[in-house]
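#structure-requests
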Amino acid sequence: MAKIELTRIPFIKNALKSRYPQLAVFIVMLIGYIFAILAGLIGTPVGSHNFSIVFVWIAWWAILILVAVPFFGRGWCAVCPIPLPGEWLQRGAVLSPPDKRPKWLNLRVPKMFRNIWLQNISFLLLALFSSVLLTTPNITGVVLATMLFAAIRLSTVFERRAFCRYLCPVGGFIGLYSQTAPIELRIKDKQVCVTCEGKPCYNGSQAGYGCPWDVFPGGLTKNTYCGLCMECIRTCPHDNIAVNLRPFSADLAKPSTRMDEAFKAFIMLGSAMIYAGILLGPWGILKDAAYNVGTDAWFTYVAAFLAIIFVALPGLFTVGILHTKNTLPLKQRFASLSTALIPLGLMFWVAFSLSFVLTNASYILTALSDPLGLGWNLFGTANATWQPMLTSMLAPAQTLALVGGLIWSARTAQKAAGEVKVSPIPVIVYCFIATCLMLWLLL
């Protein structure tokens, strides 16, 4: 499949170049986000009837994992409300171009933090407390508020979207899996960028802002660090930037060599497996350990969680690829071949989310009518009874997702192994074993 330039269509191009449609979505999202914070803090403590729990961890999560990330990559980042207040303060404007003189410190993020290790850590922190986070509204409200204020604070200290680029726990895994999506933003002609004076797509101009994600579009080769904010489309004086429709997983043809990205793949793969066991499995002792934060059992759970992600999964992967004879350093082979785990991890999350979301989706109707649990019945659905949805289709859909992910990863492993000139068989076997384990956990 050849790339199709979507911005050749006048309606799409005009909609992306104008800030007003995006601003309208931003404002709606920001209102919803603030309401979710308030609902978590002042609404009913019953998670299944609280807007913050139901709409963040069921409705939003379903849209994100099942639709937004697989098909639109960084599409959520294009409308995420979290960076907005801080960005408006940073620029001193909502729509008009900022003054040349910074209004705040505008510091450069230190080089040692310009990677996704902090995003890995922030995701793990949420993951370790996830059992409480998914069921306790006031904890969800505090976490949402913390993310908003962290984004504001970082915007007053550092340049651009430092929170989104280096700290956001959601942005890290969206960036990882956005490489599989069929949507990309790329330049049309590299030579045009080479000769362009001032590089307004990166530095900004009177037409708009410099890239908030600290990415030079002329050097963009994959989706991982592009937030699809569309500012470069608005500032490019040569109309040299396009949004394209492309084959799935096009970015994975050239594997990464970064260890922070490699470990993100293991973190996401392992977390999906552990969540399946804790939240959907029959083992009450594991559920109790995950829910009873601060107890000896919980600390044992934390140790096991981290050991699986940082020792067991990468350790077994390393043992497998040790037998692939090659002159490249083991570190480079490890990072490159771990690219094959990205499609598998995405499908693990799809399979897990199908079960979690379809089991709890009926709570959306209740929370919609009575978002704070105060006895309202705005749409006549406050007393809707809970029942799982599409139960007969769940197991086949999960099996299809997992088997499809295995095939997808096997093909990716072949490409990655070809790049580093080793056999893909150990990676394919690793993916097969992981898939069988996930099938057992879910089915």
